[in-house]
Amino acid sequence: MITINGIDYMPVRKHGHIIPNYYVSKNGEVWNNLTKKHIKPYVVWRGKKGIGKPKCMDFSMTALGQPWWDRGYQYKPKKGMPDCIEFRMKVHLAVMDSWDPYIERIKKMSREQLEDLVYKSMMIDHKNDDPLDNRIENLEYSNPFANSNYIKEWN
């Protein structure tokens, strides 16, 4: 944790891993410790830009790619910086992942709360990606992230 102008900041985490040099306050302010400046997040809209309600706030950060590539992530190198990658992250995820990490939250949950959480987020995946093949050998419990076509393309 660092303190800037009397405000505490925790390291930004993505998928449970700390992104070096980036910190977030409980109020969603993001600090870049290399530039010694706050990062201005931008609005992500539900539809056309500026029309209707905003969906969330995002911000971008740059980090060395190698630790992420070693973990199997398929991030592309940042243009002009072949050893770096650029992340986009939702501010609300950065705040929660840094100040109230998921793994710590589930350690405090009762068995009933855990079962309810799993039940609400669980889905059935077809291992061979063929929705017509419903043999038990081809089915497994999964989650929306692991079951997304984007993730399946990585593997």
List keywords for this structure.
single chain, 155 residues, alpha+beta, five-stranded antiparallel beta sheet, three-stranded antiparallel beta sheet, 36% strand
Give the gist of this structure:
With 155 residues, this protein is an alpha+beta fold.
Describe it for me?
With 155 residues, the chain is an alpha+beta fold. The chain has helices spanning 66-70, 91-99, 102-107, 111-121, 144-147, 149-154; strands at 2-4, 7-14, 17-25, 30-32, 37-39, 42-45, 54-64, 84-90, 123-126, 139-142. The strands form 3 sheets. A 5-stranded antiparallel β-sheet has the order 1-2-3-4-5, covered by helices on one side. It has a 3-stranded antiparallel β-sheet with strand order 6-7-8. A two-stranded antiparallel ribbon has the order 9-10. The longest helix is centred in the last third of the chain and has 11 residues, at 111-121. The chain is globular, with a radius of gyration of 19 Å. The mean pLDDT is 87.
